[in-house]
Amino acid sequence: MRPAPLPATPARPFDFSYVDTLPHQDVDGCRLYLGKPATPPPAAQPRLLFVPGAYHGAWCYANYLQYCDEHGIACAAVDLAGHGALAPDPGLLRLTVPDLARQVLAAFDALPGPTVLVGHSLGALLVAWCATQRTPAGLILLAPSPPGNLPGAKALPPKPVDQVCAPPADEEIRSRFAGTPEDADVSAIVARLCDESPGVLNDRYLLRVPVDPARQRAPGLCIEAGRDTPDRHPEGQDRAVADFLGLDCQRLDDAPHCMMYAAGWERSMAAIHTWFRSTFN
């Protein structure tokens, strides 16, 4: 299988405006953005449903969504409660991972035909859990947060529970999220990030969300970001997640945590497309 083609459009790492052009529908507290494929996808080909992680909304997948539309791949992305266009939300403080997981299931159920679940970071934990409650056509994890029952997983310091958590500062966005130089303009990212629920973060940090590997039977791919931070993604953890859930694993050495919008996002999308074609064509 030859590698998937790179995007016809130039790399636009911090231009998220494409998502604003897509039709959307509200489903059980979340918002689904629906792709507009330039050519009709094959009837039997599944759809990709992109689920964002902490602080992010569907906007973070703008490059992937445009790529899919240009290459005739059915796709959708979701804003969960209190995130993306649904922020701010007065109920954000009370949200937990199970609350968001139920919304992912609602989005999955609202889409016709077979669907591949794709999640980034905390969103990867959400879709991994959802894959034990439904039967997706596939499962793709990007820089995944580990299941709480992953052998060897280490907890992180919890957040105070009495206030919402502000997004990371510009310095962390540059170094961890986007992997840019210290003087890079990240204002387009800052403008779209939203506050996060301490309950959601603590569910991940304190390893309170187990995933039963025996109930996850979908084929899939885990993509490791080689430039991720070792506190949240110690060496070998992402591959251990892949092995735990029965997925293939690929490491992108130059990718920072938010590989879907950092410079070089094309490489992660090409890896997804190559896996997609080899699995469903």
TrEMBL record:
<dbReference type="GO" id="GO:0042171">
    <property type="term" value="F:lysophosphatidic acid acyltransferase activity"/>
</dbReference>
<protein>
    <submittedName>
        <fullName>Pimeloyl-ACP methyl ester carboxylesterase</fullName>
    </submittedName>
</protein>
<feature type="domain" description="AB hydrolase-1">
    <location>
        <begin position="48"/>
        <end position="261"/>
    </location>
</feature>
<dbReference type="GO" id="GO:0052689">
    <property type="term" value="F:carboxylic ester hydrolase activity"/>
</dbReference>
<dbReference type="InterPro" id="IPR029058">
    <property type="entry name" value="AB_hydrolase_fold"/>
</dbReference>
<dbReference type="GO" id="GO:0006654">
    <property type="term" value="P:phosphatidic acid biosynthetic process"/>
</dbReference>
<dbReference type="Pfam" id="PF12697">
    <property type="entry name" value="Abhydrolase_6"/>
</dbReference>
<dbReference type="InterPro" id="IPR000073">
    <property type="entry name" value="AB_hydrolase_1"/>
</dbReference>
<dbReference type="GO" id="GO:0055088">
    <property type="term" value="P:lipid homeostasis"/>
</dbReference>
